Amino acid sequence: MRMVDIIEQKRNGGILTDQEIAYFIGGYLDDQIPDYQVSALLMAIYYKGMSQEEIANLTKHMVASGDTIDLSSIKGHKVDKHSTGGVGDKTTFIVGPLVGAAGVPVAKMSGRGLGHTGGTIDKLESISGFRVELTNQEFVDTVNKHKLAVVGQTGNLAPADKKLYALRDVTATVDSIPLIASSIMSKKIASGADSIVLDVKTGSGAFMKSLEDSKRLAEAMVTIGNQLNKQTVAVISDMNQPLGFEIGNANEVKEAVQVLQGEKIDDLRELAIELAAHMTVLAGIYEDYETAVQALEEKLDNGEALACFRDFIEAQGGEASFIDNFDLLPQSAYKIAVKATATGYIHEMAAEKIGLAAMHLGAGRATKDDQINHAVGITLKKKIGDQVEKGDTLAILHSEKDQADQVIDIVRSAYTIQPDKTKPRQMIYEVVK
Questions:
Q1: Hey, is 337 helix, strand or coil?
Q2: Which of 196, 202, 299, 427 minimizes the number of CB atoms within 10 Å of its CB?
Q3: How far apart are the C-alpha atoms of 24 and 47, rounded to whole Å?
Q4: Is 413 annotated in the active site?
Q5: pLDDT at residue number 114
Q6: Looking at domain 79-323, which of 3.40.1030.10, 2.40.50.100, 3.90.1150.10, 2.30.30.100 is its CATH number?
Q7: What are the DSSP calls for 340-378, one per residue?
Q8: What pLDDT is attached to residue 324?
Q9: Is 82 among the residues known to form the active site?
Q10: Smallest Cα–Cα separation from 144: which of 98, 107, 99, 89?
Q11: Which residues make beta-bridge pairs with 395?
Q12: pLDDT per position as a tens digit, 276-302
């Protein structure tokens, strides 16, 4: 078997066999196949695509390239959740406790973030004392006792994906649906859950800008999961504006707790319940989606989910007292208002610009070596559909500097204000099973 023949076959639109995919993944991981040949194959895949069977086989061999997590000592049906990423996405901090309160074990491995804010692990490190690294036994014991644990990803989950992603990043092949789908699903499947719920974002602040592309990605990932014996559901959700009102690290943790305390932050609450409902149905806790939604709304409103969150924070060494006093979370030195320059209604928000502004403040990383400031971020005061008067506050910057003119300009430019009314956007577009 020769790599050049595999490249030629895919270049001509052919279907790669399971053995050919195994050869290419194994050879590249062992440094037997050079970058330039793998780059050629990635570009061929970018243009010619892959069949669902090819994508499933690619994912399978990426999973097999490293460790797989054995969660068999955790009692019950384990369901994992993954988001394709967006601005203000803090649903894990609501969904995990909600699902845990329903009796479903959530054993979650999350990463750090490159981009506008930190990842789930970075946000949890806003909490004083919280440990993101547990031994395997501590991880298992925490989930068995409290139904929820969140730790940093092991370094050897799907190493073939890590190596391929670095090459995709420098060969303009990142935005290929077969490659995105296999990358995400290889890590989720290696993480050991029995079932998977995916939150696939669509819109201006998402990786997939169009609903059509988001649906194609969702369908590809659901098919992979099902073909590899992991029952999978994907929810396509809106990211044409940030989720909730907080962007940052400590302030996103705060907003998640506010939802757990019963505050009606509508879009965030709706999406969290949607994801949790599918997770609990997959786990067999509730018979159908409608029953799950009703039960989970009750667990939010009666404090059961908040109690699960508090137990989870304490179990991993965190000072849970911040739940009752948000001033115990990291606080920025300055709060700077961004004012509207026109009167009318918010028609659009460039979510990606809002995220970029948060990164400029220090909430995210431009490179993997950048340090995150947990205290900085943005609080939105107006979103799509809201009426504004000239001079009204659109957003508040949480900054370590008293001057932030560049960031103010970015945030202001993210808002489109027009004279006529417009309706708020829907949160959930479609569910793919």
A1: strand
A2: 427
A3: 18
A4: no
A5: 62
A6: 3.40.1030.10
A7: PSS-EEEEEE-HHHHHHHHHHHTSSBSSTTPPP-TT-EE
A8: 97
A9: yes
A10: 107
A11: 338, 380
A12: 999 999 999 999 999 999 999 999 999
Please give the average per-residue pLDDT across 6-14, as a whole number: 97
What's 329-418's CATH class?
Answer: alpha beta
Enter the tokens of residue 411: 């945030």
Question: Which stretches of 228-265 are DSSP H helices?
Answer: 250-260
The one catalytic residue among 116, 168, 383, 398: 168
Active site residue 163: no
CA angle in degrees (0–180, nearest 5) for 261-283-207 = 70
Residue 369 in this model has a pLDDT that exceeds 80: no
d(CA 397, CA 426): 26
Please report the beta strands in 171-245, taking only residues with DSSP state E, as ranges in sequence order: 195-202, 231-238
Higher pLDDT, 279 or 109: 279
Q: Are 293 and 277 in contact (CB under 8 A)?
A: yes
The catalytically annotated residue of 82, 310, 353, 374 is 82
Q: Note if 332 is an active site residue.
A: no
Decide the pairing of beta strands 106-110 and 79-83: unpaired
CA torsion angle 383 384 390 395 (round to 10): 20
Rounded to 5°, angle at Cα 356 from 402 and 95: 105
At the topology level, CATH places domain 3-49 in: 1.20.970
Catalytic residue among 187, 299, 310, 398: 187
SS3 per-residue string spanning 78-140? CEEEEECCCCCCCCHHHHHHHHHHCCCCEEEEECCCCECCCCHHHHHCCCCCCCCCCCHHHHH
Q: Where are the domains of the chain?
A: 3-49, 79-323, 329-418
Confidence of residue 312 (pLDDT cuts 50, 70, 90): very high
Indicate whether 218 pLDDT > 80: yes
Catalytic residue among 122, 161, 194, 267: 161
User: Does the active-site annotation cover 128?
Assistant: no
- Residue 275 phi/psi, 5-degree rounding, is -65, -45
pLDDT tens digits for 374-426?
Answer: 999 999 999 999 999 999 999 999 999 998 999 999 999 999 999 999 988 89
Q: What's the pLDDT at 112?
A: 76
Report which residue type is found at 82: H
Query: Does residue 71 contact residue 139 with C-beta atoms inside 8 Å?
Result: no
**For all residues of the chain together, what is the average pLDDT?**
95
Widest CA span in the chain: 68
Residue whose tokens read 């670095």: 166
